[in-house]
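Write out the 3D structure for:
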Amino acid sequence: MTVRKAWIVATAVTGSALAFVMLLVVGVYVVAGNLVNGVSGGAKNLAKGTVPAAYAALVEKWGRLCPAISPALLAAQLYQESGFNPHAKSPAAAQGIAQFIPGTWATHGIDGDGDGDRDVWDPKDAIPSAAKYDCTLASYVKDVPGNLTENMLASYNAGAYAVIKYGGVPPYTETRNYVKRITTLEKSFAAPVGRVDPSQQAAGAIAYAQKKLGTPYLWGGTGTAEQGGRFDCSGLTQAAYASVGVRLPRVANDQYNAGPHPKRDELLPGDLVFFSDDLTNPRAIRHVGIYVGGGYMIDAPRTGAVIRFDPIDTPDYFGATRVTEDGAKALPTTV
């Protein structure tokens, strides 16, 4: 029996495909109600698979250098700065995975791996240096009122003098946005504590995707009229969440960081589910769909296929993200 026929049989039990979606709507909000007093957010440990395996141990180790930082916070900064690209360069001459400018590197760069040199292009030096720099900034503002981590991040953006002058995060829009962005991204990189709260927009995103069932796939498709309303995988998920007011990045591997990461047995309808040929590297994610329950997703699979229901339990299943509005807003526009 094909996947499509299997789902026709399954939804016939409820009377129609619309009834199936309505069950999802009810289910999501029932769970939301049950968890309203539950545990949300993240711990300080990294969630599995959020940092490329080549750097995960470094981030775990050096993210504990001082109380102002955590592995998840350090990961959020590295993602924001470079997307974990050790060869990244910026127009402002920032270099490497941690995007140090030469003057800052000269003062704060360390020989993290003990090989006798300080190489801004080597993550084994740059990641420890980023952690040390954070902790140095934290030491400058340790006596300032307020949250030490937020004051450290504000110092990173605006300078410790401004934090000391204003007795906390200064009233600069750019700085306040930076602090909020990194602390929100930290939740996307942190291992969840307990159950992750459901997404309030999940049912609407599923309803949108279901209306597109049978639409032919288009590489690069985002559903525009010029494209005949066709989508690729991340174009579909982007449009589905845009329909409920959540703006996701364009590509799948960036959508992965739009919220916390529930385990396979904790998936709820509306979660984004991701697939990769390299299960050690979130930057290698190549496919995404919208989970609908029962081990199935709605996705735009490939050229020559149509938007359809597909199983998620395949060897290339990477993980899932429970999209949050704040999480999506925190993502960098370019990584």
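Confidence is low (pLDDT under 50) at residues 1-20, 25-43.
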